[in-house]
Structures are given as structure tokens and as C-alpha cells.
Design a protein that fits this description.
This protein has helices at about 20-25, 30-50, 70-95, 110-120, 140-150, 160-165, 215-225, 235-240; strands at about 10-15, 55-65, 95-100, 130-135, 180-185, 200-205. A six-stranded parallel beta sheet has the order 3-4-2-1-5-6, sandwiched between helices. About 45% of the residues lie in helices and about 15% in strands. α4 links the parallel β3 and β4 (about 130-135). α1 (about 20-25) packs across α2 and α2 runs parallel beside α3 (about 70-95). The structure holds 3-methylbut-3-enyl trihydrogen diphosphate (2 copies) and magnesium ion. One 3-methylbut-3-enyl trihydrogen diphosphate binds near residues 18 and 19.
Length: about 240
Amino acid sequence: MTLPVPERVPRHIAIIMDGNGRWAKARGLPRAEGHRQGTENLRRIIRACVEFGVEILTIYAFSTENWRRPPLEVRLLMTILETVIDRELRELNENGVQIRHIGRLDQIAPALQKKIQYACDFTKNNHRLILNVAFNYGGRDEIVQAVKRIVREGIPVEQINEDLLNRYMYTGDLPDPDLIIRTSGELRISNFLIWQGAYAEYYVTPTYWPDFNKDELHKALEEYNHRKRRFGKTDEQLSEDEFK
Ligand code: IPE
Ligand code: IPE
Ligand code: MG
């Protein structure tokens, strides 16, 4: 079934892909199977984003807090990223996807670091969709790293403002997310894009990530189309802006 493309498609969508574990548990399956199905779903959602004309997709794959999970699960999540790169890189490249990593590389095993860097380098000239993979990412850590670099570079105090700080974030050259989706019903941000999400629209669905298909994405885009983004202004100002 082909769905009509919503009239106002967000330039930048970010997704907290949550609920793999509960998806598996509900079916009496191991958590690993939930992660596997979650990965399959990611492929479908990337394809749908390309089709809908989304320019940037940022996905939360592993948080700085996820190291607290049992070592076996942490290892599994690392292996999954490795496997996805091995298996999907060629197709992603053929579809014009530019892969970027956001988060801390230094705490990741050297072999995986290399693989991530290779994938980013291999796809750097693609421009159809920018795919930011937030892996070992934490919003607070991102801000700490930005401040450290600013201090290290000796930037004078007078030059420090929101634009400058923004440039030091991992997404410094990209527009902020317009829409942040969280699957599995949790009403929290879990340290994701806390700087960039200041004025994002949020959409939460009870659907677990492995079941969040193209129709569900379409529903989220439709709801986004009904949101009124005021950015601090009044409704009257917004209607005046339309005629400018
Ligand atoms: C999201 O699913 C995947 C990661 C956090 C890596 P979860 O593993 O958090 O699934 P739940 O929340 O336990 O259901
Ligand atoms: C957020 O999900 C991180 C990712 C989706 C990678 P979690 O499942 O780890 O979030 P919390 O711990 O429930 O807030
Ligand atoms: Mg979770």
C-alpha cells in the first residue's frame, strides 16, 4: 500500500527506538530476539524516511546509560551494530544514505570504532538522507564534551553564545530535530538530544519499536502536521508571518 506523503514533512526526525525487550517478553522470546527484530524494523523505517523525503534521521541505538545493562546484553548490542554495518552498508550507500555517528567513540572497542569510522567515511558523499546513529550517546555528555573543547581552544567569554555552543554539538552543522518520536510509551527523554530538542515536537506511541512500521510513522507525520509550532510567538503573529 502506498501512503500519501504528508504535506509538511519534518526535515529532521529523531527516534528513541524503545521497547525491544518488552516486545520479546510479550511473546515469550529472549530479549535478543527483540533487538534482532528491532534492527529489521530500522531498515524499513530508513526506507520509509527516504520515501517520505525526510532529510535527516537520528536514531538512538545505545545510550551512555546502557552500559549499566548486564554485560551479555551490552556485548550483544555492540555485536548488532557490527553486524548491521557489515550487512547493510552497501545497500544504505546505494540508497544515498550518509551515515554519521554521534556520541563517544573512545569508549567503544577499537575494532568497532574502526568499522563505524569506515561506514561514515564510505558514505560521506551521499546526500539523500543523513542518518545520525546515536551510539554511546548521552545529551549531558555531549554538552560536557562541547564545553571542554571550547575551553581547550581558548574561546573568549564574549564569543560564547547559543550559536557557538550549537556548533560544538555533534549535530553542529544540522538543523534541530523537528519531531522526536519515542516508541513503547515511556514519557521521558532518557538523555537524548537535550540541547537540540529544545523546540522539537514530541510524539509518543505505545507501540513497541519492532512493530513501529511505515503506517505508524505515517500516523506520527500526520499528527505532526496538526501541531502548531509557535516558537514563543502568538497565533496572531503566526498568521501574519504566513502572508509575509
Ligand atoms: C530499546 O529497547 C533498545 C535499546 C535501549 C538498546 P529496550 O532494550 O530498552 O527494550 P525495553 O525497554 O526493555 O522493552
Ligand atoms: C533509551 O532507551 C536508549 C535507547 C533507545 C538506545 P532505554 O530503554 O535505555 O531508556 P530508559 O532507561 O528506560 O529511560
Ligand atoms: Mg527501554
